[in-house]
Amino acid sequence: MGREVAESCIDGVIIEMVSAYASRFYSSKPDLAARRIEAIGFQVGHQLSERYTMERPRFADHLEAIKFICKDFWSELFKKQIDNLKTNHRGTFVLQDNHFRWLTRISLDPAAVANNDATSESESGADMTSMLLYFPCGIIRGALNNLGISCAVSADMTNLPACSFVIRIKA
Predict the structure, then answer these.
(1) Which among 153, 48, 157, 135 has a CA at the least distance from the CA of 91?
(2) Which GO terms describe its biological process (predicted)?
(3) Quick one: what percent of the chain has pLDDT higher than 70?
């Protein structure tokens, strides 16, 4: 039997980690906070990928590795698969999660976020939410790096709690 941790505990730790880096440790340097949060996610993704692929043969190509991330890896992390995968067949992949668990408890005024017409309170909420997405971007990048794929990962959260992760494979 493997070790288990309550999902609410993981959610709380991640939210607190992002809050600490964004609001306390690097409050005057949001770029540095984002890099630190992404680096932590990278390490987590790298280690989880190692654990989840231990018994598997190496992947033949990028698409096979991305499918592993969408199905098996995402299922282990979030108890569901990615909802949609798109590619341009030239090294760019878009992973769509229509109900990203880490964004379900976030409440923002969607009109204010969309129009960049936010008050300072909702603006700080939008900034904190975007900071929260650096962690899963790091997880994806770390997992793919462990599979031998160098890439850049970014996130888009225009329609909460849906989220898209854009993966650009580096040549």
Answers:
(1) 153
(2) endoplasmic reticulum to Golgi vesicle-mediated transport
(3) 87
Which CA distances in Å does 72 have to 67, 77, 90, 164? 8, 9, 23, 18
Q: How many domains does the chain have?
A: 1
> Residue 90 belongs to what domain range?
7-169
Q: Is 35 helix (H, G, I), strand (E, B) or coil?
A: helix
Calculate helix-pair angle for 7-19, 30-52, nearest 10 degrees.
150
The answer to whether residue 80 sits within a structural domain is yes
Under 8 Å between Cβ of 38 and 50: no
Q: What is the pTM of this model?
A: 0.86
Each residue's pLDDT tens digit, 30-68: 999 999 999 999 999 999 999 999 998 888 899 999 999
| One-character DSSP codes across 145-170 | HHTT--EEEEEE-SSTT-EEEEEEE-
Comparing 80 with 6, the larger pLDDT belongs to: 80
H or E stretch covering 71:
none
